[in-house]
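Quick illustration, no need to memorize.
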Amino acid sequence: MASFGDANGWIPEVTVTRASIMDLPDLFPNDPMQLRTIRGYNFSEVSSAMQKAIRRGDAALAGYWALELWSSGFGKYVWKRLLTISAEDCWGILTQEVKALHDSYLVINDGIPPKQAKGRIFISKAVILLCLSKKSRDPDHLQNMVYDQSAGLDPDTLAQELRSSGEYVAIPEYAYDCHTREGKKRGKTKADFFKAEQAALQPFQPGLFDHLID
């Protein structure tokens, strides 16, 4: 199991610029897919599990993964991901609510050294709001189906349980999609991703482009 932080248990907040839409902590710069959280989880799998738990309306599990990332020093990344989720997966005007919580988080930490950062309650509140909101992936379908016409054919494969020591919550099967290293190894495609995540949305808000997923 990976171990990070100093003798006082502080987990540093660090990021690295990557040629993608995400900023990832610079712990293993040669292979970002090998990043580990404080409890030994694979970073990309935890990130995937957090977003998919939100899509499924599972506040407890989504909150667990969000706070695991925050506790591991990935707070800035968590906020960026939650803001993206508010636009990608949630119906209606919700992004401003998440941004307001993020701004409050910054106020709470104004003048506080990064290693003493507080305010995870704002992340918890954001996760709950996202989980309770109606779900619609219209924005993602618009860019991928209407504009890009993305497609793929490979079927789902069985997932292997992640091993770690200490208190352990298993990475759920649905986390292993085409955006994770393990999912790619198993042949997961974007077509699989769109179908599975559309079917899992809870509570579901019918969208303009739902018919493009079948």
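Residues 75-88 form the longest helix (14 residues).
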